[in-house]
Design goal:
3-stranded mixed beta sheet; 7 strands; 4-stranded mixed beta sheet; alpha/beta
């Protein structure tokens, strides 16, 4: 059986660079280095046919601990709920109102970047509170 070396999370989107810029700010991620022979990703992009320019972007955890995120342009608009989403874990170890306050503070930071609040899901006997959000293109994620 093959051993998994890395995980990449891929986003279908209309504007890969803009969605990547949002997630870099959310997670503290950076652009990967450009391939050998290029001084920037813009230089790489300029070598592509016009219809493919701006069609992909990526970002990665500078520490190497988190998964690489890849963004690819698709022609269709988002329709319906995501079948998979990211949980941004800002409330680890917190409970009750202290946890809700941490979630709300992070939402306050992300809204000027283009994030939108969807709903606060209050703690139940099984799960702690989380805050459902949307990124700049309406993809759901949770502040957890």
């Amino acid at each position: 059986m093959a051993e998994v070396k890395q995980v990449q999370v891929t986003f279908d989107c209309a504007s890969p660079r803009a969605v990547a810029a949002f997630w870099k700010e959310v997670l503290g991620y950076v652009d990967p280095p450009p391939p050998p022979g290029f001084d920037s990703w813009d230089a790489v992009d300029a070598t592509l046919p016009p219809d493919r320019q701006g069609g992909v972007w990526a970002c990665q955890d500078p520490t190497g601990a988190g998964p690489r995120l890849f963004f690819q342009r698709v022609p269709e608009a988002k329709a319906g709920k995501n079948r998979i989403h990211l949980d941004v874990r800002v409330g680890v170890g917190l409970t009750g109102e202290e946890r809700v306050a941490a979630l709300e503070a992070e939402a306050d930071r992300l809204e000027p970047l283009g994030a939108r609040r969807v709903r606060l899901m209050r703690a139940t006997g099984v799960n702690e509170s989380c805050l459902v959000m949307q990124d700049v293109e309406g993809n759901e994620f949770c502040l957890d």
